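CO-FOLDING WORKSHEET

Operator: S.A.
Ligand of interest: flavin-adenine dinucleotide
Run index: 442
Mode: holo prediction, single chain
Checklist:
[x] sequence pasted
[x] SMILES validated
[ ] output reviewed
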Amino acid sequence: MTTTEVLVIGAGPAGIAAATAAAENGCAVIVLDDNVAAGGQIWREATVGEAASAHRGHGRKWRALERLRRSGAQVLGGRCVFSAEASGTVQTSHETSSGTLVEQFHFEQLILATGARERFLPFPGWTLPGVFGAGGLQALVKGGFPVGGKRVVVAGTGPLLLAVAAHLAQDSAVVSSVVEQASLGQLARFAASLWEHPAKLAQGVLYRAMLWKTSYRIGCWVVEAIAGSNGHNLSAVRVTDGTRVWTEPCDLLASGYHLVPNTEIAALLGCKFRGTFVQVDKAQRTSLPNVFCAGEPTGIAGLEAAMVQGEIAGLACAGISTTLLQKRVAAERAFGESMEKAFALRKELRSVPRPDTIVCRCEDVTFGSLHGYTGWTDVKLQTRCGMGPCQGRICGPVVEFLLGWSPVSIRQPLFPVPLQAFCFQDESVEIATTNEPIEEKA
Ligand SMILES: Cc1cc2nc3c(=O)[nH]c(=O)nc-3n(C[C@H](O)[C@H](O)[C@H](O)COP(=O)(O)OP(=O)(O)OC[C@H]3O[C@@H](n4cnc5c(N)ncnc54)[C@H](O)[C@@H]3O)c2cc1C
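OUTPUT RECEIVED:
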């Protein structure tokens, strides 16, 4: 058991800002992250070639990481938090050369900065090789996946689409079109609201300029991914505007429907929620007095919001007033709310999957087999939807959008952990690796 004053879960921009602020103000801080390196989604490490050198130029990231390093906060990468108790303990699983290790951390104050993940929506053909999540493809490219010369369609909804498309174009992909489901009216209102956020407006204009050869199809969505003559790899997508349907040839499809907050740990701890987000006060304190939350789990609002909320949470843990910073949170939260409205999912997307379209990829559960049940628990018990390795992280939001059922309870372990890991340091327990009976030891 490792004990610390402040434990931060998540080393994205919110967690980095939180840990830095708390450590600079005298707290002993440990930061845990599933990823090996700090940075989260937007500052994910680029490991190879041109991508690596391009990202090394991201001054803000390097300044934030350098300040974190100097603050004295200890960052432990490769730690996946799978259980948490409000009494002050979290458990992590950690892959080592000798197997999975379970570690326990005891905290006085906890900051949840667990970010968000992409929302996927199913359509016929979405399990074909060549179909990726938009952010997922971006992450692979940062890790060295070659897209040079490949024809890519980027589809779904949200500002991430343009960011991903620009990134892929920079890596020499041929981004033929960006397919955005939001209507022209929704986007026009969102663009108008950006005058209050000139830096974001400038970023959007820059992305669009980088994609000047790319068609930006508004109010359109993908209805099918089509395999090539070998029957396996993606060769084209079918796109509709609700009236016409046409085919666009491509080698890769990057598809994502905005973001879903990672709130499982907060739910496990028993924090109160505001809709789908964790409820926090002005100091980012949750309904539990020693648990704070910052960044995307409190509302999807982008990098600025994540950083300022993280700083507030870290300062609050150190007992320092955050009144001056709170005004910035309000402005960023308003931006998040306008983004939610602009990229709200259209109802037509509910009729895209066919009865044989897979919804739960872990357990191969089709859309058709979900009918006739009364809710999430019923469908989970009867079909195994949401029972696989992702524990409903992918199919949960899908089922919620398609059928209106949301998960009713959350249990640990949040992620699958091998049974062997719990016995790592306990020689009295032996795991049967054959069918022979387990021999009990005293
Ligand atoms: C796939 C993806 C790609 C994105 N790309 C861009 C982009 O190109 N440009 C842009 O402007 N915005 C992008 N965003 C949005 C961006 O992430 C946010 O705007 C903002 O930076 C979020 O910061 P954060 O610290 O709240 O979360 P994140 O950056 O998501 O950081 C959260 C961290 O928590 C860790 N974590 C979560 N759960 C656990 C757990 N149980 N155990 C251990 N660690 C855990 C994660 O590994 C992650 O490192 C992307 C988002 C996603 C989901």
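REVIEW:
The chain is about 30% helix and 25% strand.
The first strand starts at residue 2 and ends at 9.
[x] output reviewed
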